[in-house]
Structure formats: structure tokens, C-alpha cells
Amino acid sequence: MKQKVVTLLLVVLIAGLMSMVVIGSQKKEQEAAEQKVAEIKSGEPVYYYGVTCPYCQVVQAWLEENQVLDKVPYTKKEVWNSRQNAAELAKVAASCGINASEIGVPFLFAEEKCLIGAPDIIAYFEAKLAEMGSPVDPAKNPLNQDTQDLDQAEEATNEASN
Predict the structure, then answer these.
(1) Contact between residue 76 and residue 47 where contact means Cβ atoms under 8 Å apart
(2) Alpha carbons 19 and 26: distance in angstroms, whole number
(3) DSSP result, 70-127
(4) Is the CATH number of domain 43-161 3.40.50.2000?
(5) Is the preceding peptide bond at 106 cis, omega within 30 degrees of 0?
(6) What is the pLDDT of residues 16-42, one digit of tens each?
């Protein structure tokens, strides 16, 4: 009987200690994410994207074609394969008052504003480039062209993921 009581106490003690460790680590992760959001708010724009997202691919191609990174520093973070980046995106979006169900990629956080979607992100960088005296030819904006190719790319991505 005494051995059962001691065993039970040890189990309860171990369970309590493990709970404290889990709660402590979750709190540290949350604090780290909040600190990261504070750093992001004071730094350069952060572009969140998904690897197979067709709209993200359009934005990425436009950024590369116009050599935006050489002119406007920004950070790229992939969110579909990185839980850390996805959690960071959720915190950043929440700081803009965006519900988790409304978050999508491509997503840009710049100047304490959240921009979702290729048109807004490309427009932001076009404005930045124009401010710097490097305007972009509107004909190079894929969103000014026929969106049939983009729609087909999205359909192919959706079929591949099903």
C-alpha cells in the first residue's frame, strides 16, 4: 500500500513538472513571437509567401524582373513549410486587426501596414521604386496583363494538392 502511494505521488510530481515545462516553453514562444513582431514593425518590409502559391510566384517574378531587392530592402519568409514563419505571420496580421481566417499569401508587412494579395504588394513596391526615381514600366506589371495564365496556374496548383 505504501509503495502505491509513493508511486502515485511520483507520477503526480512528474506530471506537474512536465506541465510547468510545457507552459513555460509556450510562454517563451509567445514572448519571442511578440518580440519578433516588435522588431518587424521597426524594420524593413517583410514579404510572406507560400512555395506553390501562384499569386506569390507572380509577385516573386515581378520583384526579380524589376530587381526590387537591389533597390528596396525587404525580408522574404516562406510560411507553408515553416511553422515559425506562419506563427509570426499570424501575429503580424493580428497586429493589423486581421482575423486568422482572413490571412493569405502573398502578404506584405510594411510601414506598420498589412497588404494582402499581389496587386497591393506590387503597387507598394512600384510606389517605393517611383519615390527612389526608379519607376517601373506599367507594361511589366503582370497584373495589367491577361490573368488567364495566372488562373490556369492556380487551377493546376489546386489539382496537384488534391
Answers:
(1) yes
(2) 11
(3) HHS--EEEE-SS-HHHHHHHHHHHHHTT--GGG--SSEEEETTEEEESHHHHHHHHHH
(4) no
(5) yes
(6) 677 666 676 666 666 655 655 556 666
| Grid cell at residue 12 | 503526480
Residues 107/114, Cβ–Cβ less than 8 Å: yes
- Tens digit of each residue's pLDDT (9 = 90 or more) over 72-94: 999 999 999 999 999 999 999 99
Whether the predicted model's global pTM rises above the 0.85 cut: no
Give whole-number Cα distances, 21 to 8, 10, 27, 118, in Å: 20, 16, 10, 42
SS3 at position 161: helix
